[in-house]
Sequence to fold (391 residues):
Amino acid sequence: MSEVISNIGRVYLRWALTDGVGPLLFSRLLVQFGDAERALGAAASELQLVKGIGEETAGKILRGPAQETLEREIEEASRHRVRIICRADPDYPEGLKRIPDAPIVLYLKGELRATDAIALAIVGSRRCTIYGSEQARRFGELLAGAGFTVVSGLARGIDAFAHHGAVEAGGRSIAVMGRGLTEVYPPENAALASKILENGAWVTELPMQAAVRAENFPSRNRIIAGMTLGTLVVEAAARSGALITARLASEYNREVFAVPGRVQDPMSFGTNALIRDGAAKLVMSLEDILDELGEVGERMRRVIDTGASRASATNDAAQSEEPGAARPPGPLSAAESRVYEILGYDPVLQDVVLRAAELPAGEVLAALTALELKGLVRRLPGNLVVRRGTT
Fold:
């Protein structure tokens, strides 16, 4: 693991742990004094020139957190293999740098990559329906398979299914936590959280020992919205916290998408209202998302098309070499044909199909879903899949 915190990160951490200083006020301090270190040396009278700083807050800033508090926080982070990065560090997410209330510091477990700038958020209700869970997992798989990093909040329901879809597709996922990184919340998602760390990260702006509190989650939602190109809302009630994320995404000039639900289902009132009011684009497929992302969408589409062309060539070659081989019922896409050929009438692990297909994982998973809807494939317990019999 790299160093727990940089020298400039220590300066930012002091500000993050100072009572009365939040992200917006800290941004004003940077504008007023030029950098975080210079602001530390300001006199009370100079500090009070900044909007939002009165005599009391200026006093808190001058006192600051005790040095032992800073060292204890850094030691706790080190013990849990967590890094603390700040806005001035090179691996701080670019998307967050462009929002007005960017976290002063981020606590990071796992790894952030430059490619995580190509990220989509998936959010929704904790008490989701079967339909909602299916769509969250589906879009997690599709986006991860297309090369996007999937960002969500590791909450019960839609968040968890979106993360599951991404990691099962072999893609990257980032969990933004509403508590310190000493423990996973909710505890039933601990195994999922560990899986995310294999090819992703956990992040939070909260100190290591911060407990779960209701007020943590709206601010957590702004990180989800801020570090992504857009937010996809899957199943949200009229007063869902996911709508906060959608609103913030819009305020940050990011895209907002929504999966439509049944018009009389209370769990879809929020998502359907976003679509009705023109606040979100109705999404039924990965293509709908790519269409709205401009140049980025075109670039990701080329990646997908390259994989599909390779698969089609492989499929054509196999058919020409084995003219007597059984062909799947049509019409099927190249990816669906390839997956159908791999499957037999004996159950096989989905992971085996993913490897054998030699296609992007999201494309394979989408093909499996399409074949299932066409009645050609069955999913079985234990992550097994099998061709349906003729009877």
